[in-house]
Design a protein that fits this description.
This protein is α+β, with helices and mostly antiparallel strands and 467 residues long. The protein folds into 3 domains: 223 residues, no CATH class; 81 residues, Helix Hairpins (Orthogonal Bundle); 141 residues, Heat Shock Protein 90 (2-Layer Sandwich), CATH 3.30.565. The strands form 3 sheets. Strands 1, 2, 3, 4, 5, 6 and 7 form a 7-stranded antiparallel β-sheet that branches. The N terminus is likely disordered.
Length: 467
């Protein structure tokens, strides 16, 4: 049960049902209030009209005992002393009027009324009635009434109040009928709303279920080449499917790159390890034949390769410079080049002031990798320059070698790629230097590109944002 009500379909259906229920209850209460008010106003109009009609007769001089009060509307006439002067014949009990009595009481003025009933005088009727609620029992049946009270001065100058009532049974019956219809119709409507919402939500979420099943299958099979189905619609579910497939594509490429990286790293490590082991085994058997210099060189190669692999692993993990600092790029180049000894060809510099922000160690590594690459390919000169260009600092390293073919200018930044595979590994390196340089450049918000140099060789340009 908890699983059912924990689903999106169930929550959507329940939420829609609750919202519709609240809206319908509020609308129903408003309708009942308006209906009750309109019918109450109608009852007041009827009661007021009946009261004014009787008051007009009283003001016109008609004697109280001669008033034709009729049987349709209960009427009671009360004087200032709360004595009943006239009442409808069939009225048996009353509340909400000027007196609870239904028996007329003769007043002293009645005799004078008999003596002067032909005097032709006239009284005065109040213009606006006042309303109150109450009950009346007629022919043994008690019902609620709306009473209208009209003050009138009769032909003899006596002030009395005429009460006329209009039954509220019509209002109560209409309100009860509407309420009953709502009580019956509301649950049925809510059932329909819940069912429609459930079906619509189920249809809308069907592609999501397909995505979930396919993702579960991919997780179980570890086959990252599979893709989730993309619905033909242009809604959020289709966008989710496309984004999921894009994520799977990126993940597949990352896993493949990682596998290739591990395979290439194992291949690169195998050669110096095997060479070092051979030398040590020969040295153990014949100490006089141990090539200490060669062993040290293999150890250095292993150390450099391990450092490169460790740095690449950190870069792949998204590592950014831990302590970013302002670096004078020209000063860093001047200092690093001054520490290089034994370069095969001369290095010429052309340095302009430029400051960047980042890791000095990583940027020094980039410079060293670029200069090492240029030294391997240059014929007679390597040129290093620093300048500013469009809000960026540009570190350029050019050589006068054979250059890089245009079709290979992106491939050389891939890991373990060497265009001069025929060159010995000792001279050519492991093919990680340029890959590391580009990764570091990107982590610093910059770029590393290669083009043709002014002397015909390769020109590597590192562009970094100015500090």
């Amino acid at each position: 049960m908890g699983k059912v009500f924990g689903s999106v379909r169930a929550r959507a259906a329940l939420g829609a049902t609750v919202v519709v229920a609240v809206a319908l209850v509020a609308a129903g209460l408003a309708v009942l209030a308006v209906l009750r008010g309109n019918l109450a106003d109608r009852a007041e109009v009827d009661a007021g009209a009946a009261a004014r009609a009787v008051a007009s007769k009283v003001a016109g001089g008609v004697a109280y005992r001669e008033l034709d009060l009729g049987d349709d509307t209960p009427v009671q006439i009360v004087d200032e002393d709360h004595r009943v002067r006239a009442v409808s014949d069939d009225l048996q009990a009353v509340t909400g009027t000027g007196s609870s009595s239904v028996r007329p009481v003769a007043a002293p003025s009645d005799d004078a009324e008999d003596e002067h009933e032909d005097d032709g005088g006239s009284g005065e009727v109040s213009s606006s009635p006042e309303y109150s609620g109450g009950t009346a029992r007629i022919d043994g049946t008690t019902e609620e009434y709306r009473w209208a009270a009209v003050e009138v001065t009769d032909a003899h100058g006596e002030d009395v109040t005429v009460y006329a009532g209009a039954p509220l049974a019509t209002e109560q019956g209409a309100v009860g009928t509407v309420r009953q219809a709502m009580l019956i119709g509301l649950p049925l409507l809510l059932v329909v709303v819940a069912g429609v919402t459930w079906l619509v939500t189920r249809r809308a979420l069907r592609p999501v279920e397909g995505i979930r099943r396919e993702m579960a299958a991919i997780t179980a099979s570890t086959d990252l080449s599979r893709r989730v189905p993309e619905p033909g619609s242009h809604d959020e579910v289709a966008a989710l499917a496309r984004t999921t497939n894009e994520t799977l594509t990126a993940l597949e490429a990352s896993v493949e790159r990682q596998r290739a990286f591990v395979a290439d790293a194992s291949h690169e490590l195998r050669s110096p390890v095997a060479s070092l082991r051979t030398q040590l085994e020969v040295g153990a058997a014949h100490p006089e034949l141990l090539d200490v210099a060669g062993a040290v060189e293999d150890v250095v190669r292993l150390q450099r390769l391990a450092a490169d692999l460790l740095l690449l692993a950190r870069l792949d993990a998204g590592e950014r410079p831990a302590r970013a600092e302002r670096i004078a790029l020209d000063g860093m180049v001047r200092e690093e080049l001054s520490q290089r000894t034994g370069d095969r060809v001369a290095v010429v510099t052309e340095l302009a002031p430029a400051e960047v922000t980042g890791s000095r160690g990583q940027l020094s590594r980039v410079l060293g990798n670029l200069v090492d690459n240029a030294q391997r390919h240059a014929r007679g000169e390597v040129r290093v320059s620093v300048r500013t260009e469009g809000g960026r600092a540009v570190l350029a390293v050019a050589d006068d070698g054979g250059g890089v073919p245009e079709s290979e200018r992106e491939r050389i930044f891939e890991r373990f790629v060497r265009l001069d595979d025929a060159r010995s590994r000792d001279d050519g390196g492991a093919g990680l230097g340029l890959a590391i340089a580009r990764d570091v450049a990107e982590r610093h918000g910059g770029t590393l590109t290669v083009g043709a140099g002014p002397a015909g060789g390769a020109l590597f340009a590192l562009r970094l944002p100015l500090a």
